[in-house]
Amino acid sequence: MSFEDELAEALRQAGDGFTPDRQALVAGGERRGRRLVVRRRAAVIGGSVLGLALIGTAGAYTGGLLGGAGGTGGVGTAEVAAPPALSSTPPAKGKVPGSGTGAVSDEQMVTWLRQLLPDGELTELKGRGTGDGAGGTGVSGVFDDGKGKAAVGISLNRVDPNGASVTEMLTCPDKNKFDYDGCTSETMADGSRVMLYQGYEYPDRRVPTKSWRATLVTPQGYLVDVQEWNAAAEKGEPVSRPNPPLEPVRLKSIAHSPLWRRALEDLPGARPETPRTVPRPGASAAPVLDGLVAGYGVPVVAKGGEGDSAYVVLDDGRGKSMVTVEVQSPGKHGGMDSLFTHATVMPDGTKVVTRQTPGEKGGKNVVWWNVDTLRTDGTRVIVSAFNAKNQESDATRKDPALTMAQLKEMATSEKWAQYGK
Q: Are 244 and 212 in contact (CB under 8 A)?
């Protein structure tokens, strides 16, 4: 059970039957700090630049909301002159965080968008200049090149270019955990980093709306995000064409355009990102999980993970099945005692709770089997299994490849006693 699922569980219990939208919670974040950004990058990859352009602020990035734009109108990459160094000066008293002086107007943002798009009709235009931090700096519209209407959104921001969040945001998500059609990440000649992503508005593809984007960060911390869909709106409108109108190389050109420089320069520089806590030496759940799974003799077809969380995908010939583990050290799960109110207590004092519920991330007929344990020293180990290759995909088999007894054996294994020590 991941952090966001625990939060939903606690909210549900506190609300005496109230059930929050866990899909929305999951789409918005990842487990603690770093995972927040990673999940937003991947599932937000069905996120919204239209929303970003009109809602986002400098602080929105740290919550996973991105935006950006740029291009020269052609597919080639434009040279961007070196922007000024980042400023760490806080906004003036009474000034909305994330807003600039207003040097770039709403109308100017719209004009630049028109210049950067190819021939076609552009309607439903909404621009936000640099003077309105509450609304965010960006522009959106509906573009039609004669082959169907497509929503297009661009958002601009400032970030710490050396922050770990930027690196994670520009790294393609794990293909084993998230379904998408294509993703590349590269460093350009001027040092700018860009990720080109071709995915879907919803990772589980509950609707065929595609979401393509280019996210670019310059060495000076200028964040530019361009997103498009193959429908007139990101949500709630039928697909109007097989693919969005702009190819990834064109999106990159738009994101790298010098036209946006004046707006980016007018936005306040981001404060340096607070360094994250260095992981405990030896704290790697992956090798422990690998060793435990090996004892069951089920072929592993994929695996991954980092730090306190890891996964494997098993396939015994009857369909793929993902197994995940998450370890929480003492003090990292405060306020969740209610989850263990009705736990079974083992001879060594370990509390064990088992659950078998439907999957909650959109995959058709997915089941989620879970064993949640809390040791006497406060260490928590959660092992889950699904009857699908990942939580967003449709089921490939009736039940997970491992039994509940095996999941319990894994979660209560003595191998976790020395974890991270």
A: yes
